[in-house]
Amino acid sequence: METLTPLQGGKVPQTFEELWSGFDPRAEPLETETVKAWEEDGVVLRIVRYRIGIFKGQKALMAAIYGYPKGGTKLPGLVQIHGGGQYADYRAVLTNAKRGYATLSIAWAGRINAPGYEVNPDVVKLFWDNRTGDPDYKLTTDWGALDAYHAPCRNEKNNNFYALAPAVWTLDSVESPRNSSWFLCVLGARRALTFLEQQPEVNPQKLGVYGHSMGGKLTVMTSFDSRVKAAAPSCGGISDRYSDNAIYRSAIGDDQYLNRISCPIIFLSPSNDFHGRINDLQKATGEIKSSDWRLSCSPHHNHQDTPEYQVTGLLWFDQYLKETFTFPETPKSSLELKTPNGAELFTVWPDESKPIQFVDIYYTQQGQNEGEKDDRENTMNRFWHYAHATQNGKGWSAELPLLTTDKPLWVYANVGYPLDQPVAGAGYYYALYTAKSFNLSSGMHIATSEQLKEAGIKATLKPSLVIEAFENNWQKEWYSYNPSESRDFRTHKLYDDQWKAPSKVAKLSIEILSTQDNFLQIALDDYASTVKVKGKPGWQEIEFDKSDFRLKPGNSKDENLQALPEWIPFKESVIGPGTSQWNGEFPLFKNFKWKVK
Fold this sequence. Notes:
Elements: H1 16-20, E1 33-40, E2 43-55, E3 58-69, E4 75-81, E5 88-89, H2 90-98, E6 102-106, E7 112-114, E8 117-119, H3 121-128, H4 181-197, E9 202-212, H5 214-222, E10 228-234, H6 246-251, H7 254-258, E11 265-268, H8 281-287, E12 293-296, H9 307-322, E13 332-336, E14 345-349, E15 358-364, H10 376-381, E16 385-388, E17 390-392, E18 395-399, E19 409-426, E20 432-441, E21 445-447, H11 449-454, E22 466-468, E23 489-491, E24 507-513, E25 518-524, E26 527-533, E27 540-544, E28 550-551, E29 573-576, E30 588-595
Parallel strand pairs: 4-6, 4-9, 5-7, 9-10, 10-11, 11-12
Antiparallel strand pairs: 1-2, 2-3, 3-6, 7-8, 13-14, 14-18, 15-16, 15-19, 17-18, 19-20, 19-21, 22-30, 23-29, 24-27, 24-30, 25-26, 25-29, 26-28
């Protein structure tokens, strides 16, 4: 018997309600099979497959990694949903189990990473071809007559994550939201909730969902299910709302699912993320039914994060599924445009129920106005100015000097809180991390150019030859994805008009204090220049002409490593040792600047 009723008279679902009408994720038997089982560090782990449903007469099975602490009872359960190109991964299951959770990491794309059970894209293809005699062959997700795989899809021309067109691998023979791979994967995720609630060691009233990137969108799409009691999407689930296809927008678009979410939800959304754009957070938090939500938005980052941001998802589940943690409230904030001195004033009132480590304010003028088309390159590389906040009573305020009033202003705040004890987890890409603090963000305030001018705002920032003096809180405007082991510093400053090259013949200059011989590399997007620095007690100034910058080895643009043709607004600038390591103590820097004769 088919899981989904065949179309009647060719009439396809037009809305969310029609798409999901009649589907009961508990109705069919799971027919669970265990493919592999083992124990590690007191954790029971299994590779399993369960029945998603019957489609076009063929059974579809989801492969997954399941695990829980041995001997555990009434455990909260988590569905972990991987992103595009990622795997179902035992590290997420193992680290969650050590914190008292049962976790099912679903392999909707077929890829699995577990000890002795590696299913990479090549092995997925072996499975498709039923090459059971190959020594690398392994069972994995089987979509049967359909194709909801990804990177690669089983059919090269499959584009049904963003299209609804019919094909031999789709459910319906006409354009239909039931042809969407998003829809199919959510079917599998809702059946994962059924799997969890049927496990004897799991408390079926304490289920959560989380995922990154494409998994972030799938998390949002799954969280309308009333069995989900907490959700933590990262880098997705807020921005897929602009399709030209009306049926897609009304049945698959993020907003259709956001406005049906009533469970507590935390959005992990880096400021420069291309897949979950931060300006869409305002819409998302206004659309959800739940009044219990939080934001954690790292500055400068794109599609990955550092521990103090990643850990907020784990802590969210601790609060709502284990009841062992209590989050501060979302920081209250206001943007005042009409001030006596003609400068915007941003004020934050953080929740003081826990000790506050810092209050940071970030703003940019590289965001588009509402209704303007998003520029993907700009989204990933826009520069966020840091504004030092001064405490006045319970509020923290900062003025926001602007370079122009011809562009909009975006501003938000981050509040850092210490953890009583370090928390360990597996991150967005399953690398293990330990967090000693966590970060909550305010909502973002946006003022249009028209609003700035109407309020009488004055542009007080001037173009600057000094890109970085390396003083005070300079690191707030630079970033690294692994600060504890970082060899270099990254920034988007040279993408901002304040620090654009003053002339074609300008040079870049930096001063360095290095006690031992080292290599210093300045990288500007695809180009880099490396110089040897002699170790000695005093400061050394090093100048770089544009001709000193060559395409990095392995760059596909030109095998001859041609020189940089001109100074342009570089998206990312990096200062570090290049491919080597720093010798001796970490060098000091000052006066990274433009020089003109």
